[in-house]
Amino acid sequence: MDLLIVVHIKSSYESWAEVFNSDPGVRSEFADEERTRIAKVDNNTALVQLFDVNMQKMAAVLNDPNSTIATAMADHVESRELYKLEQMSPPS
Predict the structure, then answer these.
(1) How far apart are CA 73 and CA 71, in angstroms?
(2) In what order do the strands lie in the sheet with 77-85?
(3) What are the strands, taking DSSP E only, across 10-89?
(4) What separation in angstroms does the CA of 58 have from each of 3, 31, 43, 50, 89?
(5) Mean pLDDT by 10 residues, the chain (92 residues)
(6) How high is the pLDDT of residue 50?
(7) Which of 11, 38, 57, 85 could form a disulfide with 30 if both were Cys (CB 3.0 to 4.6 A apart)?
(8) Is 41 inside any structural domain?
């Protein structure tokens, strides 16, 4: 499954991006890390594209309060919105 995640940031985009890029959650265990992309919307909002996501593995990592990512992101992330991406045909 491919996802678009809207990240609402408590700290700053630069601080969040530094932690995100250090990959504390080992994204390669649940997504195609080579295709992962991030983009700045503003200082408190980022977009993340993840491809070929194993949702069960991602949920286990993100929902584990003792995981490295939970600790690393606690000071940076206020909330996340997840959207499923699907290819569609152009309107005819």
Answers:
(1) 6
(2) 37-42, 45-50, 2-9, 77-85
(3) 37-42, 45-50, 77-85
(4) 11, 8, 26, 11, 29
(5) 97 95 82 95 97 93 81 89 92 87
(6) 96
(7) 57
(8) yes
